[in-house]
């Protein structure tokens, strides 16, 4: 590949959420600070939303890596779980032993005893759930009921939910409105600005071992931002393919032609923007309906 050609020790633009490549953009750092403050304050429910590819999973992993040994963290990446399956996963993540054929009631009892044991040891339990916009309503309700557990002093369980913007639509469902009311802190991740994208690219190259001169030309950076709109996942995909294109021509710098080639070879750009437009439309419709309902109320 192009690693030796550019003097790199590892791939700089993988789309897997590697915290060693974490870049503290304004939005990322503000999101992380919000999470840490809320968790250290003992808040029960925290919500983080962001468009596809903005780095919610990376932020989640950065949060988990930032918590010390006074915290026990359970990470649930799979949202497609029925209530009992979620409880089983939580028990496994927290090291609470339960039989595979146990009833849901017995499972809840075991979790309660386990959480009380953590509390006696002064260990705080944090559950991080990813892609929650896809989680069944009944599972979200089971999560809310589990979060009811508390001592006289604090919650036995703190919950951080990560999801795409349509999560807001799901949380407006009548059957789980109590869950929405419990969210005390929330934050929405933004895309990278044009300047942040340039620093982001340089940061990842340096982490990957690059020590040479400027890799991406100014024109290449401008086109990359136009094509990616600052979405980190798309930036990574375009940068990786543009480096490949430059390497194929024996070049040491990525030019605008290489970014054009990368964008032409990346179908995910079109599909992502289609999804983002649909999300925006869905939220606009929701806001319009809510606005109309408010106007219809008697004065």
What structural class do the secondary elements suggest?
Answer: alpha/beta
Instruction: Compute the number of strand runs.
Output: 5
Distance between the termini: 68 Å
Mean pLDDT, as a whole number? Answer: 89
CATH hierarchy class name of the largest domain:
Alpha Beta
Proportion in β-strands:
5-15%
User: Which CATH architecture of the largest domain is right?
Assistant: 3-Layer(aba) Sandwich
Uncertain runs are 289-299
Task: Please count the helical segments.
Answer: 13
Widest β-sheet, arrangement of strands: 2-3-4-1-5
Task: Describe the 3D structure.
The structure is a single chain. This protein has 299 residues and is of the alpha/beta class. It folds into two domains: 93 residues, Helicase, Ruva Protein, domain 3, CATH 1.10.8; 163 residues, P-loop containing nucleotide triphosphate hydrolases (Rossmann fold), CATH 3.40.50. Helices cover 54% and strands 10% of the residues. It contains 13 helices and five strands. The chain has a five-stranded parallel β-sheet with strand order 2-3-4-1-5, with helices on both faces. The chain is elongated and about 65 Å long. The relative contact order is 0.16. The C terminus is likely disordered.
